[in-house]
User: Fold this.
Amino acid sequence: MARMSYLDAGRRALTEEMERDPAVWALGEDLGRGGVFGQYRGLQEMFGKDRVADTPISEACILGAAVGAAMTGTRPVVEMRFSDFALCAVDELVNQAAKARFMFGGQSRVPLVVREPIGMWRSSAAQHSQSLEAWYAHVPGLVVLCPATPADALGMLKSAIRCDDPVVLMEHKNLWALEGEVPEGEHLVPLGRAETVRAGRDLTLVTWSAMRQPCLKAAEALARDGIEVEVIDLRSLWPWDRDAVMESVARTGRLLVVHEAVAVAGFGAEIAASVAEALHPQLKTAVRRLGAPRIPIAYAPPMEDEVRVSEAKIIETARAMLAPERAG
Assistant:
């Protein structure tokens, strides 16, 4: 095992895949100087400007070119800088990349990866802080991934590059500096498989991306009071690991879904509805969701914190879900 940051794990993944397969290349704004966050630093010097390509400031141009390149035999890795800006290229992704395999009767695939940094980043305000993963999970033809650890940042990017369908890889900006253990050698994370990161008997807590850490801290705090929370990092939103979630909730009888994105129409609603439909007789209490309110994210830190899903809110909600039984 090696210890590295989430950012460095992603850079290692891309380096390894570019060394393994000459059809893999990267394109986006400012990649030559390392990218906005430094996640491409040194790659242009290593692979040249043809394979780490700087582009005009036009998201539609970048993604449109990548779709064509993918359909003609290469495997582009597209940098969108911020998920908010990727909306300028939503037609190319949603109406072209996602539909091509179906519309051409399986004769053409679009094996590209779109990297979209998501989430709240201190004082980045409403146009640089959104988590839009539910938008893409709604679109048939797209694979949607949200790695939360350095090991997953490595293994999921590598698996995404090898996938023959278009992948939206959403990397949380607050995780770039997160350090963790990463396996040496070849490391691939299967797409569509969740990770149970903490076992528990009283409540199933399903989350993804940067919410993994506060959820684990909340579970540890609750354990000191004898409440054992099972924490599942979904990792892949589409396909999502229904079996892992259903098996856990069938045991605990309770489900809390936690995500940073706006709660209204968030992907947590899909999980909540699916569990309620399948396991209603086995539920001990109503399924609950925790997400951001439906308001723009403010620039001022105190107002930003009001929107944030915190460890304290997770603990409060979990206690409320167990309150009737504990009172009895």
Q: What stands out?
A: The first strand starts at residue 2 and ends at 5.
